[in-house]
What we know:
Elements: H1 2-14, H2 21-26, E1 34-37, E2 46-58, E3 63-69, E4 74-78, E5 81-85, H3 90-103, E6 109-114, H4 119-124, E7 132-136, H5 140-149, H6 154-157, E8 162-165, H7 169-172, E9 180-186, H8 202-211, E10 212-221, H9 229-242, E11 245-252, E12 260-267, H10 278-282, H11 292-297, H12 303-309
Parallel strand pairs: 6-7, 6-9, 7-8, 9-10
Antiparallel strand pairs: 1-2, 2-3, 3-4, 4-5, 10-12, 11-12
Helix pairs in contact: 8-9
Bound molecules: spermine.
Amino acid sequence: MKYSMRLFSLLCLLSGQSMTAADVQLNPADVPGFYVEWPEHNGLPTMVGVKKRVERCVTEFQTIEIYETATFGNMMVIDDVIMLTQRDNHGYHEMISHIALNAHPNPQRVLIVGGGDGGTLTQVLKHPSVKEVVLCEIDAKVIELSKTYFPEFSASFSDARTNIVARDATQYIKEMKNAFDVIIVDSTDPFPNTPAEALFERPFYLDMHAALTADGIAITQSEPHFLYTDLVEKLYKQNREIFAHAAYYFTLVPTYPSGTIGFSFCSKKYDPFENVDTARIAQLSGLQYYTPEIHKASFALPKYVSDRLG
Ligand code: SPM
């Protein structure tokens, strides 16, 4: 459909006719020269200028595409949702990783659920206290494509501390008890009948609680607060029943719908701020987003969100 509309647009251009608003409404997902993420449920498309699509792979689990964008470097899209670009992934990967790793005084064993592109893994491995990282990624094709199109992350896969497990995390985590200081869920969105759906449900959070050590911390991809206020509220209220400390914080990712995305902070012992040590943060190499000030500020929520969280 996208390509027939692009052909139509091209024919309009060649024949000297311009596209009318009515033409655009026929298929709003198609804009020549742009990749458009068009979530039907919120009516807020996200557009990224692209030069060409360089890969499209249909795996057992999902459809993975790689685009060469105009100004954001390479971009990975899974099931029609933008996952990351080379230019703006730092706001996501630094914030899904360093908040928990600095809130914990001595994180040694870390589990990443999903995250097959290696962006989160790259950030986690910057912490000298970390001795082992299990990357539980269900789709090996994500790792393979990332090695080619996101070479800045490829060293993380061969780090001696990295252990790649190609399994469904909902099954793997049931076998893990008192095993991880930090768990990071770097998932896709909770669309029905996708691998990520179960990662947003209470049974998975209970399994994470059991898999954490007595002072463990879990961070989960929990969507943008403006577009998913109901989900943010549901997760927060669920998590404060399960964990000693629950919170929601957010970061800036220009290529995600609404330009932000948030995370659930779930901790058995430490609050988000008590162990934050600026000297420890200063040792982390190559940061572009995360600072001690951002660590604290990211938990400050707009009133329409804090009113819902109570
Ligand atoms: N390592 C990067 C993987 C990205 N995981 C999160 C992707 C979320 C994309 N959707 C954002 C919000 C819209 N539903």
